[in-house]
Amino acid sequence: MRESLELDVYESRTMQERAASEDYAVELYNALCGIIWQKAQSTELWSCTWRRAGEIVARVRSRYVSGDYIDFYCNFDREGTGREPLPNACGRI
Whole-angstrom Cα distance, residue 3 to residue 41? Predict the structure, then answer.
């Protein structure tokens, strides 16, 4: 499931456009860190390291904004959290 969830995020035009906003990118990073995700209609679980979360966010943003995982990795104090709109947006991919 790991690759499929990452691919879903990478291929989502909505996520790419939203992640161009630094605020949204930070929320996405925080939500990916240390949280176990489960796609609807699946029994498989997905999670990633904080570094991997930074890599994912940097790659999603790369269509609009240049950057690297280190722009996010351990730079915030809310890793493992996500505000309500973010999980709802993720649920649509």
Answer: 16
